[in-house]
């Protein structure tokens, strides 16, 4: 789902739904009507919904339905991202520097959703079984109206971009290899 940026203006930034990554047995009755009813409740205009594996297909004048797009390309153009909190989508959102509304479903998603909340880039996780038009619009409104989420997301994105992750990994591997060689 997408929402315009600050002060109700519609900049190039929109939010995207990543909940699409989880296949549901019958996604249309559960996902589409609730999100369709909730889309106007945030007071924002445009939303981008990535249909994904769940085959989400909400309709409306304020919804742009898209197929597969790289998260790294899409998320930097959003005001917030509603997603399932899988590790890859969580990482893409953090790199993009946008706040999130995590909707965890299974496996490691509750962990990453809680991590986003503890990092200060997301409101309390909204588990799928608690997802309604009201809870989603409240979470989105909170995410978009509190500048602290965006500020913290921006700060973390700068820190992530400044890291040289591969160099750190290589250094650790070399150190471990050296320690293993000394024990032999």
Please report the distance between the alpha carbons of the first and last residues: 56 Å
- Taken as a percent bin, the fraction of beta residues is 5-15%
Overall number of domains: 1
Q: How many DSSP helices?
A: 7
CATH class division = Alpha Beta
- General shape: elongated
Radius of gyration: 18 Å
Number of strands: 5
Unreliable spans are 1-39
- Helix/strand class: alpha/beta
CATH topology: Rossmann fold
Order of helices and strands: EHEEHEHEHHHH
Helix content: 40-55%
* Quaternary organization: single chain
CATH superfamily: Glycogen Phosphorylase B
The second-level CATH architecture is: 3-Layer(aba) Sandwich
Please describe the biggest sheet, giving its number of strands, its sense, and whether it closes into a barrel. Answer: 5 strands, parallel
Mean pLDDT: 78
Strand order of the largest sheet: 3-2-1-4-5
Nutshell version of this structure?
With 184 residues, the chain is α/β, with parallel strands linked by helices.
Give the tags.
about 180 residues; Rossmann fold; elongated; disordered N terminus
In words, what does this structure look like?
The protein is 46% helix and 9% strand. It is an alpha/beta fold and 184 residues long. It has a single domain, classed as Rossmann fold (3-Layer(aba) Sandwich). A 5-stranded parallel beta sheet has the order 3-2-1-4-5, sandwiched between helices. Helix 1 packs across helix 5. The longest helix is centred in the last third of the chain and has 19 residues. The chain is elongated, with a radius of gyration of 18 Å.
